[in-house]
Amino acid sequence: MPKRKQDGEQQDEDVGGDTETSRIQVDFEFFDPNPDIDFIALKRLIGQLFQTDIDLIQPQELAELILSQPLVGTTIKTDGRESDPYAFLTVLNMQVHKENPSIQAIASYVLSKAVANPALHNTLQTILAPGASSHVGFIFSERLINMPVEVVPHMYRMLVDEIQWACDDGEPYHFSHLLVLSRTYVVAAEDAEAEAAVAQQQKRRKGAAAPSSTGGTFSFHHEDECIQQLASYSLDYPLTHAVPRDKESFGLEQGGRLMLISADKLPQLVQNLTTTFPQPSQ
Fold it and tell me: Distances from the Cα of 20 to the Cαs of 11, 145, 147, 279, in angstroms?
């Protein structure tokens, strides 16, 4: 049986034309992680999160570790428990699993990126040290691109409950900090201006506001803004193995984002997510 169901909408939109947005009604089911079914799909989501740096992370070991704790974390599926997950959210204790190759790889990875922010780097060195008394929870959160952000508050709410239940049972889920990694993309100012000029003509015909012509770094995960508001540190970083790009390159320049949040702010994060991304009215 699923944890719960949620009605959701996936949207398809013709960005370059005048067609209206089409909506597809989908029933999302929330399940505990399933070690017998979820491994391959989970590895794909890990690869999506870390992108071209995936070989630095030990993805197989990370997937095995995540699935070794099936009572903490949530998957979202649309065709029953035996189907592949479309989204995944869980937390791993980096102190408890410090000998696991994937956790060692993630710790090394985030420390290498945090060099750009000395205060963040010093904090991570302290809380991730082998003998540290603090326990850092690595939140793994990833989903297919067309999954609506409105599922995220429910997943985080269930994570809060599961962490509390695990602590009540004496399990090691008392965290001092939570480490969240996310994906970003960069839009150059000239590209943003060109896209805005085209969109402005289309929006004017439809009577809607035109998008901003300002470029910058943006997140694939809309919930990042809520996390950043409560985070002690937030750092955008380039990928170590980024594919070289020039003006003729196709697609987006992608990067990563590291956010460190005090664990006692997790309930407030859930509240903010729920307010910012309410479930669509039926």
Answer: 10, 20, 19, 22
**Amino acid letter, 220:** F
Instruction: Classify the C-alpha dihedral 88-94-98-102 as positive or negative.
Output: positive
- Token digits of residue 58: 């030990």
**Count of CB atoms within 10 A of residue 282's CB?**
5
- For the stretch 148-197, pLDDT in tens is 999 999 999 999 999 999 999 999 999 999 999 999 999 876 655 555 55
Q: Angle CA(46)–CA(51)–CA(54) in degrees, nearest 5?
A: 65
Q: Under a CB-based contact definition with an 8 Å cutoff, are residues 105 and 99 in contact? A: no
Q: What is the pLDDT of residues 24-67, one digit of tens each?
A: 667 899 999 999 999 999 999 999 999 999 999 999 999 999 99
Q: Which helix (H) or strand (E) holds 186?
A: strand 177-187
For the full predicted model, state whether its pTM sits above 0.70: yes
